[in-house]
Amino acid sequence: MGSVFGSLFCVSTFGESHGKAVGAVVEGCPPGMRLTESDIQKQLDRRRPGQNDLSTPRSETDTVTIYSGVERGLTLGTPIALMVPNRDQRPTDYGDMTTIPRPSHADYTYQMKYGIRATSGGGRASARETIGRVAAGAIAEKFLRERYGVEIVAWVSGVGEISAPQIDLNSVSRTEVDATAVRCPHEEAAAKMAELISAVRDDHDSIGGVVTCVCRNVPAGWGEPVFDKLEALLAQAMLSLPATKGFEFGSGFAGSAMRGSEHNDLFVKKGDGLGTRTNHSGGIQGGISNGEPIVLKIAFKPPATIGKDQKTVTIDGDPVVLQAKGRHDPCVVSRAVPVVEAMAAMVLADAALCREAICATRYPSGR
Q: For residues 215 and 231, is the Cβ–Cβ distance under 8 A?
């Protein structure tokens, strides 16, 4: 089903953007892990709207409540239900859009699929759906950090035609990322990005951007051959996010212009195993992690809902001029950072549990 993700660490999300609440149900979290709302809230706070004038002015605290699966601060191994109420609802902002599908939004496609749609705020197609993902991802991340020492950090590496210089993948931290409103750890580039977003907002328009993510300390051996390759699952996770238009890992499209002698990651001895001198593979080879940092890039389009006049048609095909109302982000990438981290954590938690299941049942070598 379209609202369920994962196999062993399994997450389903629920809720619409202007309904009573949004949230998630997490199954497969190992029992006995310490977990409270505060473990989840800090990531939701990074995602919530109204943080600064570069995002939507919608005012939400996005306060999460754990309804099941935890007792006395410990996970029980049973489904964990998480809910966040929608406080600042304004469905009346969307009255004119009841009969006018917004250009490049999901209004038309949802109507064609179901014969009915949520007419306020985009319903399930709204980025507000990602609250459930962030809440579930915070649980996955806590498991990965405590069990394996995995670190996941995402940041804004581009807005429009402005790109940040290469960031040190081994040291970049969330503290550095959050030091700027646009969540780019390079101050000079961040200032230019913020200026561009402000100009686009004042022009009642929108702009796209790129989020880069690194996953450090991922052990070698995670991921499944063929159809469930680790990069394929990460691609599915990232491209399931609202407004995504592109995905790269490792050398990405630039690798297609390189020769094998340049692109090959030569092995070296590292600790008790092997490592690579370079990381064009992006930490994954043959669909399985190789112990190097996993590096991803995700492209986000300009938000579809803008305040400019747009000549379009109604659902019946009658010409009309649409000037969308409501409160919308002029650029989504700064708030997408914790969402990208959440999806990476969910994929890796699932891969970790699959690896543990195989190791627990395999025969000793030579048998």
A: no
In a domain, 171, yes or no: yes
Q: What is the pLDDT of residue 326?
A: 66
Supply the range of the domain harboring residue 353: 4-361
pLDDT score recorded for residue 57: 63
Between the CA of residue 225 and those of 229, 233, 271, what are the distances in Å?
5, 11, 26
pLDDT in tens, 47-74: 987 677 776 665 678 999 999 999 999 9
How do the residues of the chain divide into helix, strand and coil, expressed in percent and rounded to 5? Answer: 35, 20, 45
Give the chain's domain count: 1
Q: Give the global pTM.
A: 0.93
Nearest to 352 by CA among 136, 143, 152: 143
CATH assignment at residue 25: 3.60.150.10
Amino acid identity of 285?
Q
Handedness of CA 50, 56, 60, 64 (dihedral sign): negative
pLDDT of residue 122: 81
Whether 268 is in a domain gets the answer yes
The low-confidence residues of the chain, meaning pLDDT below 50, are: 366
Evaluate whether residue 366 is within a structural domain: no
Cβ neighbours around 257 below 10 Å, total: 9
DSSP annotation of 154 reads: E
111 within some domain: yes
Please report, for residues 134, 145, 204, 250, 256, the alpha-carbon distance to residue 141 in angstroms, rounded to integers and kept in the order given: 10, 6, 37, 22, 32
The position carrying tokens 């969308």 is 324
pLDDT of residue 76: 98
Question: According to the model, what pLDDT value does residue 294 have?
Answer: 98
